[in-house]
Amino acid sequence: MTTSFTSALKRGRAFLTPTNSSTTIPRLDDGAAKAPEGALFPKVDPAVDGEDCDHDCESCSIRYPAKFKIDEDDKLYGNVNAWATHMLVATGKTDWVRDVSDEKGSVMEAIRDCGLKPSNGKLMLSASNMPLPQEHHFPSDPTTILLLPSFTIIENVSPDTVPTLIEDHISSAPTSTTPFPSTIPTSLAPDIAGLSLNPSLATQSNGSPPRPISSSPSPLATRPCPHRYLILLCSQNTRDARCGQSAPLLRREFERHLRPLGLYRDLQDERPGGVGIYFISHVGGHKYSANVLIYRRGEVGVVEGNGIDDGDGDPKSTGVGHLGVDEGDGKVESSQVDASNGLIRGTGGKASGHGKGKESVGMGEGSQCIWLARVRPEDCEGIVKHTILKGKVVKPERQLRGGFDRQKGLVSW
Question: 0.85 cut: is pTM over it?
């Protein structure tokens, strides 16, 4: 009797307690919703993720310098400014002038001074240690950029082509608040091949249908980023020595945990899937070093057909979600995910609005960015196991600054 009464009481309490569901959170003007603390990303649960899921790594031997001191008192969540797109510029360096837009003759300077702003929202600009093209000798020579969350690499970008870059690529790219497209018919995705949708085939940032590929010549060449996940580490020593000290140490520790899983990718490794680790310039909040931004791709279903409903009045959901995400039951369907190459095997069936046919699944656009701070080397194991692979946060109260989730339609700002 007592057990039954207790269970009924728990069910009643759960029913009456407000939830943090995105359906109950007021929407912003762009359709996204500002998530209250605790609603954006799930926290690890020892009952589901293992008793040691929130423990520091015991085998970590890397330590920060003895005088490495940071702010431990400020509340972090929501302590980031909104951004729509994020552009990483290849410089081949790990440190830069204090304001990277002051790099004379560079793409970064041209972005600041060209007089054009992306029409789809604020652009976050970061210099990065991505390798330069072999023919690059001067700041004004063409370089490569990585555009997020579309996970698109754009090559041959020079200061002269920045207006074209902004108008034709950035302004039409998906943003942090663009609804995430979960499926696409094969007639629109002939080149998926386990990597990524052609950016021009994705839903535009205004929600309109995919735009056709332009036949006009352009000096800019685009291709999908091969990585399934990205770890971005602020390494700018000229802004704060703690960033210059922490970034290389964290990279070593992340590499130690990623290699046994077959997930580590160095700067020259373009095998599909895996985790790319890049150093980037100042992102704000260096007093909370180390700042770590984790971009996670969503999975996208490709269904045989022409994108027209079969008309039987019984469409089926694909159940497509984040790549390798734990949907709350503690299980990541490893049988469906090949961690080394990012391929996800389809199960057949039909998808809503896309007709009948076999479904295959590959890496889509970026669906999440999880921005952490106060990260130490002993945190890296948990971040790999739970944040990168499952989309969960180990120490949200101490480390989560914010981010976005396009599938939930939630942001932290």
Answer: no
